[in-house]
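Lesson 9: reading folded outputs for more than one chain in a single document. The general rule is that every protein is listed as its sequence immediately followed by its C-alpha cells, and records are never interleaved. Here is the first one.
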Amino acid sequence: MQTNHPSPLVLITGASRGIGAATALLAARQGWAVAVNYAGNASAAQKVVQQIRAEGGKAEIFQADVGDPAHIARLFAQVDASLGRITALVNNAGVVDMTARLDEMSWERLERMMRINVLGSLACAREAVLRMSTRHGGAGGVIVNVGSVAARLGSPAQYLDYAASKGAIDTFTLGLAKEVAGEGIRVNCIRPGIIDTDLHGSGGLPNRARDLAPQVPMQRPGTAHEVAQSIAWLLSDAASYVTGSIIDVAGGR
C-alpha cells in the first residue's frame, strides 16, 4: 500500500474479469480503494465489487470503453467525483481478435486493436498524469501497464496485430517513465505470458493456455492471480525505486 497518501486509490481498466479482476481483489486486500472499470459486462464487474466489499474493502464500478476518448474523459471525471483523485492506474484493458495472418486482417480490425490497446492506454495514462504529477499539483503516483511477451515473440500467424500493439506499450512505458520520474510518478510494465483467462476465448481459442503449456519452460499456464501479485508489488512502496522496468511474468517463456 502507498504510505504517502491518506487514501490510496487505484483505477484498474478492464477489471471485470481475468488479470484485471484478480488485481482489483488483491489491491483491495492490500488497502487500496478500487475503481473497477468495465466496458460491457456490468454483472461481472459488480461481482468483483461485491467480493471486495464483502471482504471489507472499498470499490465502485465505472463503465467506459477505453477505445473511445469521450468515454475516457467521462470515466476519470466520474472517478474524481465518486472516489477522489487517483494515486495509481493499472492500464489493463485490451483486446485480441480471431487468429489470422496479417494478409487476412482488415483495416477495421487493425484500427480497433490500436485504438483500444494503444490509444486507450496512452489517453488513460495522460489523464492519470494530470492528476498525479507534482507538476499539476498532485502527490505522485504509480502507473502499471499490462503488456505481453507477445511484444518480443511477434505472435506470427496468430495475433501479429496484438503483438505490435503490446510492443507499443513497452516503448510507451519506457518513455513515460523518464518523462515523469521527476514528478513523483513511477511507470512500469508487466508482460504476462500464457495466462489461463477468458481472453483466449475471445480470440476463438478457449483452450489456448492449456494447449500451449508444453511451450512454457515451467510446463503450465500462469494464473491471473500470479500476474496480479506482480502488479500489486509494482503498485506498492516495496517498489519505490523501480520505474521504467518491464517485468515478464511468463514462466520462462
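And here is the second record, again sequence then C-alpha cells.
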Amino acid sequence: MHCLIKDDHVAHGLTSVDGSSSTAVPIRLVDRAYESLRDALISLRIEPGEPMDEKQLSAAMGVGLTPVRDALKRLTLEGLVVIYPRRGTFAAEIRVSDELWLTEVRIPLEGQAAALAAQRAVPEDCARLLELVARLEDDGTDLVDLDAATHRAVYAASHNAYLEATCSQYANLAMRLWNYAFRRDPDASDVPCTLGSVVQAIVARDPERARLEAELHLRHFSDEVRSLLSR
C-alpha cells in the first residue's frame, strides 16, 4: 500500500473543498468533504486498503479536521471505509463475493424507488432525469459517473429520504465494484446502458413499468459485472 497523500497524488485523488465563503456552514463542509472522499473511493482514485490519514486528507481538501472526521465516520457506516483500533483508518477492501449480496438487496429497492418516482417526480425531477439519460446516450466516456448520477436522481425523485439514503449507500458500493471490474477490461465501458427505459417509464407516470425496467436494469448490470470479474 502507498500513502494516500503525495504531492503528485492529491490532485488526482481528491476534490478541493472551498470553505472560504462567509456564508458556508459546517454541515455544508461536511457534505462536501464526504462527497469528495466518497467519489474518490468509488472511482478507486483511493485504492482499496489504502491508508486515510485525517491530517493529510484535511490538507488535501483545504478543510478542517472536524469535517474530515465526520465524513470518515459516515463513510465507515456505509462500508466504504474501515477503522482498525491502534492501526488507523483505511479504504475498505473490495470483496468480489459482495456483488451477489448487493444485487439481491438492490433489485427490490431500486424497483420501489423507480415506482415511487413515477408517482411523485416533479417537473424538475423529470427534466434532470432526461438530461442525464441524453448524456449517457451521447457520451459513453463517463458511463459509470453518469450512471451513478442517474440512479441518484431516480432516488431523489422518489421523495422518500429513507429510501434515497439506503439506495445510495448500496449503489455506492456497487459502483465501486463496477469500477474494479472495469480494470479487468477497460473496453467494457462501452456496454449499452438500459437506464433510458427506466426514465421513460418514470416520465410516462407508469409505476409498474418503472419498477420492472429498474429491476431488469439491475439484473443486466449484475450480469455484466460478474462477467468482467470472472475473466
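What the second record shows: The radius of gyration is 18 Å.
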